[in-house]
Write a structure and sequence with these properties.
By secondary structure, the protein is an alpha+beta fold. A hairpin with a 4-residue loop joins strand 3 and strand 4. The radius of gyration is 15 Å and the shape is globular.
Length: 176
């Protein structure tokens, strides 16, 4: 399957499939409000970027990122459930890491929290990511109605987890 990654330049070019997949792939407490995503896409001074994953020119998923000087943070990454297991996610992640040319950082649920969390961590480990299992990390809430969530950081190269947390809290979650 031919996998490609397309940058979304403006909110009016966000496919409906992306928003539908976003809403079904992540629990409410792990989702940024959609209007916030659309505003970030249109703010070209923001380090936020959104990408559509296409497989054989059809919608296959999406990735949202924050591009900082010394790391690329993957905020959300999802592939169409009907297309999973075909290497599309692997291809997209490899393309993103090549594009980033710096450490890629992401949050995952703790390995023992559910069977899917363990599979996700295994997926990222197969792509060279390391789990910062001893580092205590809490994902702040996106909205006043949301809950904070215990997560773990993973990275494609050695990072300073404190620095990563500071960047994420300040820019992504605006939590200090």
């Amino acid at each position: 399957m031919n996998t490609t990654l397309y940058h979304i330049p403006y909110s009016n070019s966000v496919p409906d499939e992306l928003l539908a997949l976003y809403n079904t792939s992540f629990p409410a407490d792990e989702r940024r409000p959609v209007d916030s995503i659309l505003s970030l896409i249109d703010n070209h001074d923001s380090p936020f970027n959104a990408y559509v994953i296409k497989a054989d020119n059809g919608f296959a998923g999406f990735i949202t990122t924050w591009d900082f000087d010394d790391m690329l943070y993957v905020e959300h990454f999802a592939t169409n459930p009907e297309l999973r297991g075909q290497g599309i996610g692997s291809d997209a992640l490899n393309m993103l890491m090549e594009l980033a040319d710096k450490p890629v950082v992401l949050e995952v649920e703790p390995e023992d929290s559910n069977p899917l969390a363990s599979r996700r961590i295994g997926f990222y480990r197969r792509h060279g990511f390391m789990l910062h299992s001893d580092y205590k990390y809490i994902q702040p809430p996106y909205t006043p109605e949301s809950q904070s969530i215990e997560m773990k950081l993973m990275s494609s190269a050695t990072i300073d987890p404190d620095r990563a947390r500071t960047l994420l809290y300040k820019h992504v979650y605006r939590a200090g």
